[in-house]
Each structure stands twice: as structure tokens, then as C-alpha cells.
Write a structure and sequence with these properties.
Layout (H helix, E strand, L loop, with lengths): L7 E6 L11 E7 L5 H8 L18 E7 L7 E7 L10 H17 L3 E9 L6 H10 L6 E6 L6 H14 L6 E5 L8 H12 L6
Protein name: Probable GTP-binding protein EngB
Cofactor: Mg(2+)
Keywords: Cell cycle, Cell division, GTP-binding, Magnesium, Metal-binding, Nucleotide-binding, Septation
Amino acid sequence: MSILHRASFTVSAARLDQLPPPTTAEVCFVGRSNCGKSSAINVLTNQRRLAFSSKTPGRTRLINLFGIPDPVEPGAHLGFLVDLPGYGYASVAREAREEWADVLGGYLRDRPSLAGIVLLIDIRRGVTELDRRLANWIAPTRIPVLALLTKADKFPYGQRIKAVAAVKKELADIGALNAMPFSATKRIGLDTATAQIENWISPKVVP
């Protein structure tokens, strides 16, 4: 069983100063609203409702932490999966959008326990202007990024490969970037994505 399957809700925070002190590895999930982020988290953790998206666009504004328990030390965590607020709804007031941008950018730039970033991009849209803005925050940190091109089941195999190549080219300034097709419904890319995230949380010792 994957260690991700043991994840459980730990805490929500509306602001960075409400987050618990950084202690162990965190892997954050970030992407445009309606990019399939909640579905990805749920299938990776093998849970139906661990993460959920609001039916009202732009309503979910909290940072949600899901702790992965340490099997050796009761009450401690191996790491956390961090669900960052979705971004990009035009219907949300500009002031609120900028406030979210400050939270997202601050977390990505300044969180010392951040071990990896899962960037979710709708394969049908490709890299949008907002994704590019997000990449501009990420690139200077040199934190490794796994770009999941969600809803990949909507494309035939050859088109998926072209989409991955296009994303890699557009986000080349993120040095440690891995991009792959992903589908929560068809479980495309699930095993590879799971292995990458597990390794960020609990790195395998290679002789």
C-alpha cells in the first residue's frame, strides 16, 4: 500500500502565519481552478473525499494540510500533502485574486519544508498565462516540479505526447521539471506520479 493512502486531514489555514511550524517534508498541489486538482489528490490517496472542490467558483480559499502518519513514531508525520487554493476565476474580485496570489507566492517562495511541487495543468488548455505566472514564482526556488497534465483521457496517445513536449518547452526555466499525462478517472500516470511524490516525502536510499 502506498504511504499516500494513509493521508488524513490535519489542518486548514487562511493565511501563511496560521500554518503549523515547518517540520517535515511537504508536497504541495497547485493549479488553476477546475483543473482536476481535487480529483488528482483523491485518486493518489485512494480516498473519495479527502480533497473536494466547491461548487461555487473561487470559493475554496484555504490551504489544507493532509498528514501522512509516521509508522515508527506515534503522533508524528512522515510528511504532508498540501492543497493550495485554486487560482484563475475571473468572477472573483480582483482584490481577492491578488490576495490569493500573495498567499500562493509566499508559500512557494518561503516555505522551508517544501520538498516538491505538483503543478496541475488541464491538458486541453496547455500552459495558460496564469500557469506562466505561477512558474515565475517557482523557477527561482529550484524546488523540483511534477507537472501533471490532467484529463489526459480526453486525448489520444500521440496527442498526449505532443502536449507533454509543449509543456516541457514552455516551462523549461523550471530546472527540475518532470511532466506527464495524468487522468484520475482512467488512472493514467497514477503509479509514476505516486512514486515521485512518495520519494519527495520519504526519499529512497540508493546505494
